[in-house]
Amino acid sequence: xLSFSQSKAFFIAAAFASLSFSLYSFPVFGKQQTLAPExxxxxxxxxxxxxINVKNGTVNIRKGPGDKYPVVxxxxxxxxVRAVSRQGKWVKIAARTYGNPxxxxxxxxxxxxxxxxxxxxxxxxxxxxxx
Length: 131
Description:
The chain is of the alpha+beta class. Helix content is about 25%, strand content about 35%.
């Protein structure tokens, strides 16, 4: 029998897996692709337009929200991304973007970036990941 904390952890993991499945199930991880219009709209509806802002070189995108997690990819200044949410000082990234609508393509990512290296796309949301 599961203890209360184990069952709570299981419930949270199941809920997150459900969200992850609905958000990430349609594309192939790490492959740039043009999504069908309804899938692109679903991705855009569940994420926020953002971009990487690092002074020099690249920033590590990690498997989890912290420095102890392995690096899944490195992104450079100006790379467009679609971000999902913030946990502490870490922001969940769902996709890297290429181009502009209506010809935008996505590379699906499952990663996290420290919030000091990401900004919102519009002036009114520029600092949204640091508030």
